[in-house]
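R.M. (postdoc): so does anyone remember the format we settled on? I'll just put the structure tokens first.
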């Protein structure tokens, strides 16, 4: 089967959103880690890049942030509108293309598990840097390159850790199956892209899961390789 040119979340938006609400890696690992890294956001203008159905936006708004968001999937963005209401600025837009926001608009950008869909991070990071105020933060998570390299090795794929290459995953949710394309790159390629776009690396994090996960998922260790988190500052 021909690999997908784009990732069609519209085809299983409802099922994906439901899974994201309760899964270990999303609800009890990635999202709590992102919220911990953002810290006190009361009164801050935050752009949720690749906002999906809006769970992170909702949590940030509950903490006092003024939130805007965009996503490439119109179907999943409609779920975000239902969650967040009509008073939140939500737009269909592609990360990596020009964004519909003015320069120096946001105090923070959060990019939750979205950059690893892109082969070239340069245009996306440049745009996110443009819409951030000077000194603003980009808080982001991506697939951990060490974890992906290990999984590929266990699957019998002798991939080159130091290369940037794509992989296809088949996801089945809610009775629907879709192929999704992800791009792997080594850690040094990530940090090179950050500095080339005008960001300074403040934090690289490999956190523990939320303590609430210990009872729900007793077979899982508190700390495991899954995602890698960064806090970057716009120089």
């Amino acid at each position: 089967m021909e690999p997908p040119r784009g990732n069609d979340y519209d085809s299983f938006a409802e099922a994906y959103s439901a899974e994201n609400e309760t899964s270990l890696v999303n609800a009890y690992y990635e999202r709590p880690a992102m919220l911990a890294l953002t810290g006190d956001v009361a009164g801050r203008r935050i752009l949720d890049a690749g906002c999906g159905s809006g769970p992170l936006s909702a949590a940030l708004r509950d903490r006092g942030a003024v939130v805007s968001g965009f996503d490439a999937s119109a179907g999943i963005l409609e779920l975000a509108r239902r969650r967040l209401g009509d008073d939140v600025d939500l737009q269909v837009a592609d990360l990596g293309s020009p964004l519909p926001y003015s320069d120096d608009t946001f105090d923070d950008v959060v990019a939750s598990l979205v950059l690893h869909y892109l082969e070239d991070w340069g245009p996306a990071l440049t745009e996110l840097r443009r819409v951030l105020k000077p000194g603003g933060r980009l808080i982001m998570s991506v697939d951990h390159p060490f974890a992906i390299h290990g999984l590929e090795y266990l699957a019998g794929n002798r991939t080159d850790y130091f290369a940037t290459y794509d992989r296809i995953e088949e996801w089945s949710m809610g009775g629907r199956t879709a192929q999704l394309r992800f791009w792997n790159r080594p850690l040094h390629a990530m940090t090179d892209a950050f500095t080339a776009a005008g960001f300074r690396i403040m934090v690289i994090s490999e956190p523990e899961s939320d303590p609430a996960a210990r009872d729900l998922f007793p077979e899982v260790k508190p700390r495991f390789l899954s995602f890698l988190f960064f806090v970057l500052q716009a120089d």
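R.M.: ...and that's the designed sequence above, right after the tokens. Also worth knowing: The CA atoms of residues 203 and 215 lie 29 Å apart. The beta strands are 45-49, 66-71, 89-92, 106-112, 132-143, 165-173, 176-184, 199-205, 227-234.
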